[in-house]
């Protein structure tokens, strides 16, 4: 299930939101940048545009990198632990 934030306002004195959080970042409430420092999506998760909470990669997928908006499919013959963001031979 995806969690999307309300559009955010970059800068000072804006009267309307400028847009959602950038892909690869998660933006809990109160952010004023679409790519807030320290809120890059972490390993084993993905963050599409507008994400408030990073989403864990599903079964059969993984993400070894930070700042991704999707997960990679696990290669046949490997077990991929979404929390670890890596695969191992089984």
Report what the structure shows.
There is one protein chain. The chain is an all-beta fold. The chain has one domain (1-90). It is 0% helix and 18% strand. A two-stranded antiparallel ribbon has the order 1-2. Strands 3-4 form a two-stranded antiparallel ribbon. It starts with 44 loop residues before the first strand and ends with a strand. Residues 1-6 have low confidence and may be disordered.
Count of domains: 1
How many β-strand runs?
A: 6
The unreliable regions are 1-6
Structural class: mainly beta
Largest sheet: 2 strands, antiparallel
Query: Mean pLDDT, rounded to whole units?
Result: 78
Helix content: under 10%
Name the beta content range.
15-25%
Separate helix tally: 0
Structure summary:
By secondary structure, this protein is mostly beta strands.
Layout: helices, strands, pairs:
Blueprint: E1 45-46, E2 55-56, E3 61-62, E4 72-73, E5 78-81, E6 86-89
Antiparallel strand pairs: 1-2, 3-4, 5-6
Please tag this protein with its features.
single chain; 90 residues; mainly beta; two-stranded antiparallel sheet; 6 strands; elongated
């Amino acid at each position: 299930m995806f969690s999307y934030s309300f559009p955010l306002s970059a800068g000072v004195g804006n009267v309307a939101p400028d847009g959602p959080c950038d892909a690869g970042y998660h933006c809990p409430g109160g952010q004023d940048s679409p790519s807030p420092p320290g809120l890059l999506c972490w390993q084993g998760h993905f963050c599409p545009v507008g994400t408030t909470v990073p989403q864990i990669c599903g079964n059969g997928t993984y993400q070894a990198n930070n700042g991704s908006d999707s997960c990679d499919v696990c290669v046949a013959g490997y077990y991929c632990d979404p929390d670890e963001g890596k695969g191992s031979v089984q």
